[in-house]
Amino acid sequence: MPVTLQLEVVFLIAVLMMLAGWLFQLRHREASIVDAIWALGIGGACIFYAWHGIGDPGRRVLVAVTGGFWGMRLGTYLLRNRVFGKPEDARYRKLRNIWGTSANRNFFLFFQFQSLLILLFSLPAWVVCNDPSRGLAPFAPSPPLLVWDWFGAAIALGAIGGESLADRQLAQFRSHPANKGKTCRDGLWRYSRHPNYFFEWVYWFSFVFYAIGADNWWLTLLGPALMFWFLYKITGIPWTEKQAIKTRGDDYREYQRTTSMFFPWFPRKASQKGS
Questions:
Q1: Cα–Cα distance for residue pair 134/56, rounded to 1 Å
Q2: Structural domain includes residue 267
Q3: Which of 45, 39, 40 is nearest to 9 (CA)?
């Protein structure tokens, strides 16, 4: 398949997936599904590029395995924990209230904007899978994977493992009724207020290492750059912190004083009351 046609196909499929998601929210008033579709769409794009790409088969396999695994894990996690049988995420409930009678129209535009984000976030995988410098002539033996390729795979798997562990630790904490209204400080959450977001960001560096030597390697920087911007400034940390203060008050403010916001680090001493 021609290289540019791959992008067009991925964008078209993303548009159709988001249309299906919008119809789902139209019926169930559950816009949270947009996040799961976004993750599944990028994971699917990684597999698609790996299947149809013209670059090194070994690198394409790494992209399919690590990228597909990342997308499927995150997408199914969000479906289980934030969509099916769960109330709509507070972010989308707030938007629904603000938009009022225009909510369905605006959600349609919002969902379709996510189609564009799927395309943008999938560009690093497209670059790696279509790197002509590592393509093969007919019947040529596949070149061995480079140390950077294995380093990229290690980053991807480590980030997926870290994010999964953070999600599991938070779920275990919340499963105990005695912890209702309290802030999780177990495991990774002792060293970062958002370890899941941190590992989500780290994951995107895997494509930077996969693409070392590629003609359009700089496009892979879009992954970590865009993800950091969204997490740090838009939909990630700002909203989560605001909601946490609203629901957990002083307990979360103390957590803010003692725990690094994003990058894991040793906690500071708790403040002394009355001092």
A1: 5
A2: no
A3: 45
Amino acid at 73: R
Structure token digits, residue 275: 């001092």
pTM of this prediction?
0.91
The predicted-structure confidence for 130-159, as pLDDT tens digits, reads as follows 987 755 555 455 667 889 999 999 999 999
Of 69, 78, 87, 72, whose CA–CA distance to 196 is shortest? 78
Residue 208: inside a domain: yes
Spatial distance between the Cα atoms of 192 and 189, rounded to a whole number of angstroms: 5
State pLDDT tens for residues 81-138. 999 988 999 889 999 999 999 999 999 999 999 999 999 999 999 999 998 775 555 5
Average pLDDT estimate for 71-88: 93
**198: containing domain:** 3-135+143-258
Indicate the angle between helix axes 33-52 and 57-78, nearest 10 degrees: 170
- What distances in angstroms separate CA 133 from CA 94, 211, 215, 218, 273, one per listed residue? 48, 10, 7, 15, 62
Taking alpha carbons only, the member of 73, 124, 83 closest to residue 227 is 124
Give the pLDDT of residue 139.
46
pLDDT of residue 236: 84
The first and second tokens of residue 12, run together, are: 């078209």
Q: Which residue has the tokens 């690094």?
A: 260
Distance CA 238, CA 230 (A): 10
Pure H helices in 29-56: 33-52
Look at residue 203 and tell me if it is in a domain: yes
Domain-located, residue 16: yes
CB neighbour list of residue 207: distance below 8 Å, 6 or more residues apart: 63, 124, 125, 127, 128, 152, 220, 223
Listed residue (210, 159, 200) closest to 50, CA to CA: 210
The number of residues in the chain equals 275
Number of domains in the chain: 1
